[in-house]
Write a structure and sequence with these properties.
The chain is 49% helix and 23% strand. By secondary structure, it is α+β, with helices and mostly antiparallel strands. It folds into two domains: 245 residues, no CATH class; 96 residues, Pdz3 Domain (Roll), CATH 2.30.42. Strands 3, 4, 5, 6, 7 and 8 form a six-stranded antiparallel sheet that branches. Strand 1 and strand 2 form a beta hairpin. The two termini are 22 Å apart.
Length: 353
């Protein structure tokens, strides 16, 4: 089931991305020669109209082959009216950006739907979701729904925003009375309790479970607006973290971002599957937004890299050297495949660990 769910998600992400290129090329009057799922060798294909729809052996991607895609195809006779290379720069840009656009639209659509159902959303507070019986928290009168604000211990004031903040503070002041400030029904209150240095198994020092999220739910007519805002926030976050990752690699510093490939994503799919269809949809939305950002990077063989070539021609009104473009794209493909192999290796190592 995990593998099946993973391949279904992968198929959806790839097909929606390539469908963006496909429909944009058609709208720009460009001939689409092949719409393929997976990478060659080809398993089977069926030609409908002027386009061959194929299924290929390696189901880890997909492609749309448009007529006159590369300049070296200009060596013989070519129908300039239907060829990609003879379209105007703005038309080429639309075709290249259409896949990214469709991935963002998919992420936005799924998040909007999930907002109509209710989706857990991280918050910058520490709200109690459960209080253990016979614990310091229970003796101090804390209840489910109380939001812990800060801890006062002597002259120290510790702001509590996450469960980790509370765990660290409780461990620091084990068996020492502290004043805990919390909010209940809009009112600020305080209580005194003593965290346990050696709590019973299954309980923390204070005896509470902290919830760092809230269930956000909106009616169907406002969900698209909030879904768009949330999708934009996630996209900006991915961009920022990707920038931090690249900066760490360039400066030879330890990265704070986990990188995963198909094997790791399949693991996450299995975890999401345990929580039901909404969790799978949320994972699909996150992956779709991530795919949109990655494809926009100005790296050879990615949509962003090809867009750089188009912008160069637009500004200079000169064609890029055919050999240079071909070799640079080949370098990009080899680099991406190599990175995929390396990441997959480490994913497999993690899996066995």
């Amino acid at each position: 089931m995990n593998v099946l769910a993973f391949f279904i998600i992968l198929a959806v992400l790839v097909l929606i991305h390539e469908f963006g290129h496909f429909i944009a090329a058609k709208r720009m009057g460009i001939k689409v020669e092949e719409f393929g799922f997976g990478f060659p060798p080809r398993v089977f294909g069926k030609k409908i109209g002027e386009t061959l729809y194929s299924y290929n052996l390696l189901p880890i991607g997909g492609f749309v082959k448009v007529y006159g895609e590369e300049y070296h195809e200009d060596e013989g006779k070519i129908d300039k009216a239907r060829a990609f290379i003879y379209k105007k720069p703005w038309q080429k840009s639309i075709v290249l950006l259409a896949g990214v656009f469709m991935n963002f639209i998919l992420g936005w659509f799924l998040i909007s739907y999930l907002f109509t159902q209710g989706i857990p959303t991280p918050t910058a507070n520490a709200t109690i979701s459960d209080v253990s019986p016979n614990s310091p928290a229970a003796a101090a009168g804390l209840r489910q729904g109380d939001e812990i604000l800060r801890i006062l211990a002597g002259t120290d004031t510790i702001q509590i925003d996450t469960a980790a903040d509370l765990v660290a503070a409780a461990k620091q002041y084990g068996d020492t009375p502290i004043t805990l400030e919390y909010e209940r029904d809009g009112q600020i209150a305080t209580t005194v309790l003593t965290p346990r240095a050696n709590p019973p198994a299954g309980q923390g020092a204070i005896g509470v479970v902290i919830m760092n999220y809230e269930i956000k739910q909106y009616p169907w007519y406002t969900a698209p607006y909030y879904g768009l805002r949330h999708a934009a926030i996630i996209t900006v976050t991915i961009l920022r973290e990707l920038g931090n990752l690249l900066l760490s690699l360039v400066t030879f510093q330890e990265t704070k971002v986990d990188i995963t490939g198909p094997v790791g994503i399949a693991q996450y799919t299995g975890e999401a599957l345990k929580y039901g269809p909404n969790a799978l949809l949320e994972l699909t939305a996150l992956l779709s937004l991530n795919l949109a950002v990655v494809n926009l990077l100005p790296f050879p063989a990615l949509d962003g890299g090809r867009l750089v070539f188009v912008l160069y021609e637009w500004i200079t009104r000169k064609r890029i050297s055919q050999n240079f473009e071909r070799n640079l794209n080949l370098f990009g493909i080899i680099t991406l495949l190599s990175l995929s192999i390396i990441v997959t290796y480490f994913d497999i190592v993690k899996l066995f660990q």
